[in-house]
Amino acid sequence: MRASKHIQTQLLARHCTKLKSLEFRLCKSIQPLFYTKFFQNFPCLVVLSLEGTIIDDEAFNTIGQTCQRLRDLNVSGSTITDPGLGHLITSKKNPRVPNLLTMNILDTRLSAEKISEFLLSHPALLNLSLDNMSGVFLSLKELLKTKKKKKPIFQLRWMSFSEGFVDEDAVKFAFKICPFVERLLIRQTDLSVGILTPIPSLDCITSLHLGNSSYSQHSLNFQDGVIPVLQNLTTLKELTLEKINRVDILVLGELCPHLKYLKLTCIGSYLPVFNPGRDYFTNVEEMILLNTRGAHVYTKTLFQLLSAARDVKHLRFQFVDTLNDEVWSEILTKNPLRKLQSIIFDQCHSISVFTLEALISRENELADFCVWSCRFVMEDDQEIILDHIRLENYDIRFNWYPFTGEEAPMPLEDIEEDDMDEDEEEDDDEDEIPEFFNYWNNVPLPNSGRMQQYNLD
């Protein structure tokens, strides 16, 4: 029998005082002031999630005082504000959650100034989840100047600069005081040489995501901006390139020999591969090619990506029309993909049922096979594949979606931009003169004085 939340919380407070992990996600029906006393009962908490919860700032005062063992705190999407985060700022005289290692503050109303104060009091923090840290590091720089403190060394392992303006000085300062960063994300902003140049100073980086803004002209291309960065990142294992022009697959394979994850999305253009080089991408386990902007993906580019990727386990292709049955057959001849576990063809309009049967019949570890809206894979083909799976008793989940005839969808950012344009058009419409003020809808009577003001000839 289901009990009310009031009874559930009472039972927790009474019988689970040694609880180490607690989730209060998306709780919006409990009175915010309730949490202030409730968290006094859990001094042993190590993990606490308040994601999407309506909570009073004073509750964080209780958490700061009581939960001294807390290591992981998630307040993303909650109603926390600056006073609440202020209750978690620790000091020698007043220790507050001193063992905290992970903090998620995505989608909150916290100011950059208060976040910088919090970060300064928790230099051992490993993960601070925030979309754009640019403002935080600028505030932190000013805070250190004001307090005349030496630049501390922070232990952050993950850093994000996305969805807005990124200050070059903030990036340089961040890399100086956070030398142990392993995962770096810079996307949805105007990439520049000034932002990218300091990246090679991060000796520990293993994961890199670079993406241009949807509103820029993408003047920084692969040769000018990305190659100088990749030349010095010898430990890189994960790479995502987004909205980059003139991508050279041969150079990419040469500079990143240890990649295990490669994602190329919304690429503006690829340089042609005239003579495929030596074996590249031999360690890649997951490869994603989302050709949303409709760039021409050369056949030899596909060969260079896949012919030596014998360890690949997961593949996804979207709008890659040059990947036809003949090309796929040649790739499988050179690389049987014996470790393949999942593959997705999303609106790849040159493949047919022959490619699907070739993949299923091969000796591999295929367990998840998706074919979405591919023009030449019909409903009858779906039945053929399902019958083949049943007859051979394969343990494969086959997911098929019929071709609906849509054009290539725009990236979400572009759709949002179009929505903004529509809103502006609506505003313009509001400024137009209403119809009832239009002369032609209010023709004056023949003998009225208004008639003399108009010349209808």
Describe the model.
The protein has 457 residues and is α/β, with parallel strands linked by helices. It is built from 15 helices and 15 strands. Strands 6-7-8-9-10-11-12-13-14-15 form a 10-stranded parallel beta sheet, with helices on one face. A 5-stranded parallel beta sheet has the order 1-2-3-4-5, with no helix packed on it. Helix 12 (325-334) packs parallel to helix 13.
Topology at a glance:
Layout (H helix, E strand, L loop, with lengths): L4 H11 L5 E3 L10 H5 L8 E3 L8 H9 L5 E3 L7 H5 L15 E3 L7 H10 L5 E3 L4 H14 L10 E5 L5 H10 L5 E7 L3 H4 L10 E6 L9 H9 L7 E5 L6 H7 L5 E5 L20 E5 L8 H8 L7 E5 L6 H10 L7 E5 L6 H9 L6 E5 L6 H14 L4 E5 L10 H20 L26
Parallel strand pairs: 1-2, 2-3, 3-4, 4-5, 6-7, 7-8, 8-9, 9-10, 10-11, 11-12, 12-13, 13-14, 14-15
Helix pairs in contact: 5-6, 6-7, 12-13, 13-14
